[in-house]
Specification:
The protein is α/β, with parallel strands linked by helices. Helix content is 28%, strand content 24%. Strand 1, helix 1 and strand 2 form a beta-alpha-beta unit. The two termini are 37 Å apart.
Length: 248
């Protein structure tokens, strides 16, 4: 019995053709033929059981047999905003693993101490898609354009901002400072409110600047810690996603 293959098709309900890249994989790599079963994922919470109706060298046509809405396995809208690492392999690894765990939205930050100030969102989006398919998630995380730290904080404060899929209810910033004028830090696990939206900021390898922390606190972000160990950026981001998911 053939293994049922999963494909990412955002417009699955209104089309009958796999997107070009998915079609190439189905035809050239998997060598699918007419009648083969497949599951289409729209990335917005619905699976479609379908079968192949026609293939050629570049196209794969399908017919939907059943629409199967999925129930999100976590509650609340989970948003990670992180500064990308200098070594992009580490950032890409974090994106892949965070998607496998489960979260809703990803924004990259350009901070004062950032060693990487640009990012190829198209490549990151492909990694998110691949991880969504591999882990068979019904929801693909939304990927936003990279933003300057101050601009991001300002956008979060605007209820009518279209920069994000959803405005957060609870906002947190991870940092390593112990300055007396800053708010005392609590562990993120003790701050997450089950079932409610959450946004966590993770800084670059040199941490946020202390001025950035003050700006975030003034905008209502609560300072949090992820434990006693000093974590690398990519590790901190993954731990933050895991805690958000676990407590939701």
């Amino acid at each position: 019995m053939k293994e049922v293959r999963y494909f990412y098709v955002p417009e699955a309900s209104s089309s009958n053709m796999l997107p070009d890249e998915e079609a190439q994989h189905a035809v050239r790599v998997l060598r699918m033929t007419e009648g083969d079963e497949m599951v289409l994922m729209d990335g917005a919470g619905v699976f479609f059981r379908a079968h192949v109706t026609l293939v050629d060298k570049r196209h794969c046509q399908y017919a939907i047999d059943e629409v199967v809405p999925q129930e999100r396995p976590w509650k609340g809208h989970l948003h990670l905003a992180m500064a990308p690492t200098k070594n992009m392999d580490r950032t890409e690894w974090t994106c892949e693993k965070a998607t496998e765990i489960g979260f809703d939205e990803l924004t990259f930050l350009r901070c004062k101490f950032s060693e990487r100030t640009t990012i190829k969102t198209e490549r990151i989006d492909k990694i998110l898609i691949s991880a969504t398919k591999q882990s068979r998630k019904a929801w693909k995380p939304r990927l936003n354009e990279m933003m300057d730290f101050r601009a991001f904080i300002e956008a979060v404060g605007k209820n009518d901002s279209e920069s994000f899929a959803k405005q957060p209810v609870h906002k947190f910033i991870c940092h390593c400072y112990d300055e007396p004028d800053l708010l005392p830090k609590r562990h993120l696990r003790d701050c997450i409110v089950a079932g409610e939206d959450a946004l966590v900021l993770v800084g670059p390898e040199g941490d946020f600047s202390i001025d950035e922390v003050r700006i975030a606190e003034a905008a209502g972000f609560l300072p949090v810690t992820l434990g006693q160990s000093r974590l690398r950026t990519e590790t901190a981001a993954l731990v933050a996603v895991h805690i958000m998911n676990l407590f939701n």
